Amino acid sequence: MSAWNLIGWIAAAAATYAVVRWAIIKLSKIINWFRDRSLLKQSDKKNLAFTLKEKTAQGDYVVYQGIYSQSTDTVIDGQKIISQQVDAEFENLHSNQPLVIYE
User: Fold this and answer.
1) Which residue, 2, 9, 53, 56, shows the most beta carbons closer than 10 Å to its own?
2) Which are the contacts of 29, defined by CB distance < 8 A and separation ≥ 6?
3) Quick one: which H or E segment has residue 18?
4) Could you tell me the pTM of the whole model?
C-alpha cells in the first residue's frame, strides 16, 4: 500500500479512534505509546507503527497515531491527539511529510 493510500485510510478510520487532548505533543510520549504496544507491533512483521500530522485552520495540531495491519488492511489500535503545540523533535520528524512510519 502506498503512503497516500494509507493516509486516506487513516483519515477515513479516524471516527473510531480514542480522542485525547495533550498540552503539547512530545515525541517521547509518542514513543512510549508505541512501546506499550510493542507486542501488538511485533505480532505480525507486516504491522506498521505510524503517526500522521495535520494542522487545522484554527491552528491546532491533530495527530493520528496507530498500528496498521497490512495483512488485514485495518488500524488495529490507534488514537487521535489534539494539541496547540508540538515539540521540536516531533516537528523535525514530520518536517516535510505528514506521515511517518516507525521501525
Assistant:
1) 53
2) 22
3) strand 18-21
4) 0.84
Contact 83, 23 (CB under 8 A): yes
Pick the closest to residue 35 from 49, 24, 25, 53 (CA basis).
Answer: 49
* DSSP states of 55-83: E-TTS-EEEEEEEEETTTTEEEEEEEEEE
Contact call for residues 82 and 16 (beta carbons, < 8 A): no
HEC profile for 28-56?
HHHHHHHHHCHHHHHCCCCEEEEEEEEEC
Residues 26, 90 contacting (CB under 8 angstroms): yes
Cell 502506498 locates to: 2
- Return the half-sphere exposure (C-beta side, CA atoms, 13 A cut-off) of residue 20: 14
Measured CA angle at 71 (ends 94, 96), to 5 deg: 10
**Digit-coded pLDDT (tens) for 4-34:** 566 565 665 655 667 778 889 999 999 999 9
